[in-house]
Design brief:
This protein is mainly β. It contains one helix and five strands.
């Protein structure tokens, strides 16, 4: 069976990766804080490019696109093949 390639997105600001956005402890509407990390393994993965774009515009970052190649098979023991 053919392999299927999927795209996912990170947001980077300098050398840091986006983790989340928080409205906690905010007293005025439209104010939020963003959390970033230097470890890509804990960065938030986006699946929709439009939401990634909106969030990157809000936090001043840029979008990094990554691909995952999934092997379609009847064998459930096959793990996805990740490509960078």
């Amino acid at each position: 069976m053919p392999n299927k390639e999927y795209l996912y997105y990170f947001i980077k600001v300098g050398k840091l990766y986006y983790v989340n956005k928080s409205y906690e402890n905010v007293k005025r509407k439209g104010i939020f804080s963003c959390e970033f990390t230097n470890d890509k393994l804990v960065a938030f993965l986006f699946h929709a490019k439009s939401i990634t774009k909106q969030t990157s515009d809000e936090c001043g970052g840029y979008i990094v696109v990554k691909k995952v190649l999934v092997q379609k098979s009847f064998d459930r023991d096959i793990e996805p093949t990740w490509s960078v």
